[in-house]
Structures are given as C-alpha cells and as structure tokens.
C-alpha cells in the first residue's frame, strides 16, 4: 500500500546516456520511526524519515575536470527534517496536524501555535534519532562547530565561503552565533555544483 513516505526508485543513466529505473529492495534504506518523549499520540501519526542523506545528482569539479556521477553523503541536522521537510507548507505541512493533537489555539498566529508545534516536531526528531542510535546534530551544536571552523580558517589566513540562508538554522536562528556572522559566498574548488537531471540529458 502506497503512503506519504514511500521511497522512490533510483534513476541511473547507463553508458548510452539513457536513464533506467531501479526499484529499491525492502529494508535497503534505514528509516527512523518518529515518536515524542512526552506525547504518546505522536507515534500514531505514522511519521518516519530516512537515516542518511545521500546526494547523487550533483557534479563534482576538481582539477579542471567534471565528474557527473560522484555521489556523497553526510548526516542530518535535526532542523533539516523537523523544521523544513516535515514542517514547510509546501512539503509535508505537519504543523497544523501536530498543533491540533496538542490542542493548541489556531485561531490566530499570535497564539504562537506554529512555534509550539514546530518545537514539538523538532523534539520528536532529535529524540527518535537518538533512540535509534542514528547520528544527528542539533542546530545549536552545528552552529558552534561552524564558528570553530571559521576561527581555524581565519587563523590559517583563509576566507570562508558560505551562504547565510544555508548556515543559519530555520529554527530559533537568533539564539545561535551564526545569526550574527557576516557571510559571503564565492567560487571554490574542488566543489559540487548542480547539473541537469539524467532524464533531461538523455539523447
């Protein structure tokens, strides 16, 4: 039975440049079932998210050469899942659902129901990943790590290329030191950059 969190098949272009579909075998991708430490009803929402973010459609540029098939992965910051993927109105739009279960007054934005639901959603993400033993960094720790990185780069005489809207977390930004940090983005190499998707490049 299909649902909101079905994993889509991989699309891989062969040597002839034509894309092919590869359905994922069950259990191939680790997923984390989301629950909340204080609200037993949260797990009944049936929410889950995958453990490891993998990027496979970008082009790696190094030594004046483009490598169009160079997938890489990292790990999540909690707000990527809880404050963007699950909360954005044009994504999963779960703030109204969580607010209703919490019994919050949604008649006016001034009740801050969105903020309280957002906090609850992000608490669930952090709690669930920790309970599953999956690495996940919170936005306060990530901000502190980035500030240390900037200090080391400055000591070494290097400038840091960064985009403010990518570095500053989408939740409680003013509570983090990166909110007050001037940033400038400039071209560096090696780097990853966007490229047309495989199905658009196929002949």
How would you characterize this protein structure?
By secondary structure, the chain is α+β, with helices and mostly antiparallel strands. The protein has one domain (10-201): Bovine Endothelial Nitric Oxide Synthase Heme Domain, Chain: A,domain 3 (Alpha-Beta Complex), CATH 3.90.1230. It contains six helices and eleven strands. It has helices at 78-85, 95-102, 113-132, 139-155, 164-167, 198-201; strands at residues 10-13, 19-22, 31-33, 48-50, 54-55, 58-62, 65-67, 72-73, 76-77, 136-137, 191-194. The strands form five sheets. The chain has a three-stranded antiparallel sheet, with no helix packed on it. The chain has a two-stranded antiparallel ribbon with strand order 1-2. A two-stranded antiparallel ribbon has the order 3-4. α1 (78-85) packs across α3 and α2 packs across α3. The longest helix is centred in the middle third of the chain and has 20 residues, at 113-132. The two termini are 35 Å apart. The mean pLDDT is 93.
